[in-house]
Design brief:
It is a single chain. The protein is an alpha/beta fold and 353 residues long. The chain has helices at 15-24, 46-49, 60-63, 85-97, 120-123, 133-136, 149-165, 188-191, 202-213, 256-264, 269-272, 294-297, 329-345, and strands at residues 5-10, 30-36, 78-81, 101-104, 142-145, 167-175, 216-218, 221-223, 228-232, 242-250, 283-285, 306-313, 319-325. Helices cover 30% and strands 20% of the residues. The structure holds NADP nicotinamide-adenine-dinucleotide phosphate (NAP).
C-alpha cells in the first residue's frame, strides 16, 4: 500500500499516453492504477496492446495491467486524458460527472468559460474557475486542461514580456515535430523531403488559446488578453520538439537586455512550491547564432524548459525570437502532470467520489 494518488490514463497506448507512463514511473505523488484506450486495445495487457515508441523499456509496473474501456468507473481517483479531441468531450465529461478530477490534453473543453486552460507558471489564478464547475458537476468532479502543444510554448514565452511590457501583437510561425501528430501520424511519403504547411485547427487554437491563457481573471470569469495573435503552422521532418519563429510588438518601450532579463528571471509558483516536475528555469535564453535546435535543446529541464534564441530587434514589429519546446513533455504529458502537482499542492485533488 502506498499513499500516492491513484491515477488512470485515457489514451494510454498513444504517443502522449506513453509519455505519461514514462514520466509517472517513480513519481513521488502519483501511481498508475488504470489504463484505457480504444476497443482495439481493450481486454489486452498493456504489453500486448501497446508498441512502445519511446527510448528505454516499457515500465514493468504497467506491462501486465489490462487495458480498459475509457468509461467510469475506473480504479483511480484522477484521470489524465490523452484521447483524440472528437471523443474527449463525451468521455471526459462522463468522468467529471462521475466525480473524477480530469486533467486533459485534448482540445475538447479548453475554451469553455468555466474550464482553466492552465500553465502553472503563467495563470495559476485561473484555477478559481473550477468553483464554477460545481453547477455542471455536482458530484465534485471537474476538468482542467492544458493548452495545445505550440500554444504552451508561445504563451510561456510571452508571459514575462506581457507582464513587463504588455504585448500588443504577436506573429508566430511554427515548425512542428512529427510526434505532435500522434502515432502513426503523417505518412512517411508525405513528410520525407517535404514540409506540410497545414495542420488542421492548429492556427485557430494558437490564436484563441493564447489570449485566454494571458487573460485576466475578473471575479469568476476570464477577460481575454487584448492582443492580436497571428499564427501559421508547418509540419516538419523532426521527431520531437516544436519551434516557433515569433515577432512581437510591445506597448511599452524596452531594450533587448530588458527582454533577455525578463525571460531569464522568469520564475513562478511551481518553482516557489518546488513542484516535482517544475524546472528550475522555465525559460532559457541562448546567445549562439544557431540555437535553439530541436536535437540539442528539446530535453532541457527534462523537457520542461523552453529555449529561446535569435533574440533580435525586428524591422516590422519590435522584436523577434525563436522558441523551442518538447511537444510531448512540456507540450503535453509533462504539462498535465505539472498541472496535477499544482492542484495537489493547492488541496484541490481530494478524492471526491
Ligand atoms: N502528440 C502531441 O504532441 C500532443 C500534444 C498536445 C496534445 N495532444 C493531444 O493529445 C491527444 C492524444 O494525442 P496522441 O498524439 O497521443 O495521439 P495517438 O498517438 O493517436 O493516441 C491516441 C490514443 O487514444 C486512443 N483512442 C483512439 N480512439 C479512441 C476511441 N474511439 N476510444 C478510446 N480510445 C481511443 C488510442 O487507443 P488505441 O491505441 O487503442 O487505438 C490511443 O491510446 C490528442 O487529443 C492530441 O490532440 C497531443
Amino acid at each position: 500500500m502506498t499513499n500516492k494518488l491513484r491515477v488512470g490514463i485515457l489514451g494510454a497506448t498513444g504517443m502522449v499516453g506513453q509519455r505519461f507512463i514514462q514520466l509517472l514511473e517513480n513519481h513521488p505523488q502519483f501511481e498508475i492504477t488504470a489504463l484505457a484506450a480504444s476497443d482495439r486495445s481493450q481486454g489486452k495487457t498493456y504489453a500486448e496492446a501497446c508498441t512502445w515508441r519511446l527510448g528505454g523499456d516499457m515500465p514493468d509496473s504497467v506491462c501486465s495491467m489490462v487495458v480498459k474501456s475509457p468509461v467510469p468507473p475506473l480504479d483511480c481517483e484522477l484521470v489524465f486524458s490523452s484521447l483524440p479531441g472528437d471523443i474527449a468531450r463525451e468521455t471526459e465529461g462522463a468522468f467529471a460527472r462521475a466525480g473524477y478530477s480530469v486533467i486533459s490534453n485534448s482540445s475538447a473543453f479548453r475554451m469553455d468559460d468555466d474550464v482553466p486552460l492552465l500553465i502553472p507558471e503563467v495563470n495559476h489564478d485561473h484555477l478559481k474557475l473550477i468553483e464554477r464547475q460545481k453547477t455542471r458537476y455536482p458530484s465534485g468532479g471537474f476538468i482542467v486542461t492544458n493548452p495545445n502543444c505550440s500554444t504552451i510554448m508561445l504563451a510561456l514565452a510571452l508571459a514575462p514580456l506581457h507582464a513587463s511590457f504588455r504585448v500588443e501583437s504577436v506573429v508566430a510561425t511554427t515548425l512542428q515535430a512529427l510526434s505532435g501528430a500522434g502515432y502513426p501520424g503523417v505518412a512517411s511519403l508525405d513528410i520525407l523531403d517535404n514540409v506540410l504547411p497545414f495542420i488542421g485547427g492548429e492556427e485557430e487554437k494558437i490564436e484563441t488559446e493564447t489570449k485566454k491563457i494571458l487573460g485576466q481573471l475578473v471575479d469568476t470569469h476570464i477577460e481575454t488578453a487584448p492582443m492580436v495573435v497571428s499564427a501559421q503552422v508547418h509540419r516538419v521532418n523532426v521527431t520531437d520538439g516544436h519551434m516557433a519563429a515569433v515577432r512581437v510588438k510591445l506597448a511599452h518601450k524596452a531594450s533587448i537586455e530588458q527582454l533577455k532579463e525578463s525571460f531569464e528571471s522568469f520564475r513562478s509558483l511551481p518553482q516557489e512550491l518546488k513542484l516535482y516536475s517544475a524546472p528550475d528555469f522555465p525559460i532559457e535564453v541562448r546567445s549562439e547564432v544557431d540555437r535553439p535546435q530541436p536535437k540539442l535543446d528539446r530535453d532541457r529541464g527534462k523537457g520542461m524548459t523552453i529555449t529561446i534564441g535569435r533574440l533580435l530587434p525586428d524591422s516590422v514589429l519590435d522584436y523577434r525570437f525563436v522558441a523551442l519546446s518538447h511537444n510531448t513533455i512540456r507540450g503535453a504529458a509533462g504539462a498535465a502532470i505539472l498541472n496535477a502537482e499544482l492542484l495537489l499542492a493547492q488541496g484541490l485533488l481530494a478524492d471526491s467520489r
